[in-house]
Amino acid sequence: MKKIIVTFIVIVCAFVLIIVFQKPSQQIESATEHKTNNLYKNEISLKKLQTYLKNQEELTVYFYQTSCSHCKKVTPIVIPMAQKLKIDLKLINLENYSETGWDEFNIDATPTIVHFKNGREDKRIVGELTEKAYELWFKSIKE
Predict the structure, then answer these.
(1) Secondary-structure breakdown of the chain: helix, strand, coil percentages, each rounded to the nearest 5
(2) What's the pLDDT tens digit per position in 6-42?
(3) Cα separation of 113 and 115, whole Å?
(4) What is the DSSP letter of 93?
(5) What positions does the domain Thioredoxin occupy (predicted)?
(6) How far is residue 139's CA from residue 143's CA, in Å, rounded to a whole number?
(7) Is 106 left (phi over 0), alpha (psi -120 to 50) or beta?
């Protein structure tokens, strides 16, 4: 009888420990997911981009793909950096478009950031680069 009670107590303790240690990890995942979703709040469509360009507005667009390993590393760097430098960075997920977005804006790889002025491309930066390279590029479009 003692063996059954001891076994039962061990099993109950194991379940309690699993529950206790599982909740913090779920909270961390939830916080990370919220932070990641916040990065993509400035996403626009290709149609909206075409409207901006037709109106000859100045804007900076970050072309990316959610499945791109380089984009996953670059996004958490460039979006907060653009915000800090007060650059209204628009985002376009090229996974949502077939060849249209790639061809129309001459995108060969992601991530690509393009600055448009007077409805035309002014400057471009492509690939996974250093944080300093992005900072210098962002500062150059503000000049």
Answers:
(1) 60, 15, 25
(2) 676 767 666 665 665 665 544 444 434 434 557 888 8
(3) 7
(4) E
(5) 22-143
(6) 7
(7) left
